[in-house]
Amino acid sequence: MGLGFVAGGTLGNRRTRRDGAYRKRLGTIMTAADVEMSSLNLTPALEKMVSSLKMFPDSKVRYQQLLHYASTLGPMEPELKTEMNKVPGCLSTVFVHAEMNPDTRKVYFKGDSDAQLTKGLVSMLVNGLSGSTALQIEKVNPDFIKASGLTVSLTPGRNNGFINMLKLMKRKAAVLDEEAAGLGPRSTGQTDEDAVEFEVPGKPRATAIGRALMQLNPIELEVEDFSESHKGHAHAGDETHIRIKVVSEAFEDMPLVLRHKVIYTLLDSFMDKGSGGVHALQMDTKAPGE
To answer: Where is the Fe-S metabolism associated domain (predicted)?
Structure first.
């Protein structure tokens, strides 16, 4: 996606000089970088961070800056690290909590992750979005991660995890704003009760697997034990062969191999490591509309 000048539809005068292009609008000069930043609809705090990252000479320095951001992230109380605050579709464990000042209608976030690089991304979003209104947060263009130059330093999995963090924060802010406007409470995602409600009758392991997959806030979730068809085979046993189907927004723009890696990360404790567990796992992972 190109971020800069578009050939047509100019506003005011447009000229080109050897040292760059600029536009004149309402008596001010807008450089290509200005146009790029303004199109991202960033909050002042987030814009300051993105501008700073863009100025660093290489990806190694940006990587170090992310680790510095991680060290500046405020603490998150253990009681806030619930399933409802867990970000789906992340290879690392990430929690995000939102609160609103009822007088100013501004949203404030807390967050944490068990991986330092991911924690740096959490810190960017928490510190960059806190103190903004739900509308300001909703307008933020996720492409700012590309404009900052950070995508070079991040794996595709972490990039997708970042998108899911921002989506959850936007959703939480919107729900708080609706509640403040008197439109009534609405869920910000999966609740602990949602996970408990999932059940495969007579299949405790399949039930536990389904509850673990609820972290992805699935639109559709199916868990089936097909071990019976493998009776007599090596490693066959009760609930050793499991088939799952998960349809979740967390999988949008995520390659199949990363979707499977997310699933294996969530279900690691259920897999057969030589002392029993799931020997065969068949997966059907889709984003809505696929």
So the answer is: 51-171
- pLDDT at residue 274 in the model: 64
Regarding whether 261 and 222 lie in a shared domain, the answer is yes
CA 224 to chain centroid: 28
Query: Which residues make beta-bridge pairs with 13?
Result: 24
Taking only the tens place, the pLDDT of each residue in 43-70 is 999 999 999 998 888 888 888 999 999 9
Angle at 211 between CA 206 and CA 217, to 5 degrees: 130
| CATH, residue 165 | 3.90.1010.10
CA distance 176 to 185: 8
pLDDT of 183 over the 80 cut? no
Q: From residue 86, how far is each of 111, 118, 268 by CA, in Å? A: 10, 14, 17
> Which DSSP helix (H) or strand (E) runs through 48?
helix 44-55
Distance set, CA 54 to CA 2, 4, 33, 47 (Å): 16, 15, 10, 11
Same domain for 142 and 169, yes or no, is yes
Q: Which of 46, 49, 90, 281 is catalytic?
A: 90
pTM more than 0.85: no
90 is catalytic: yes
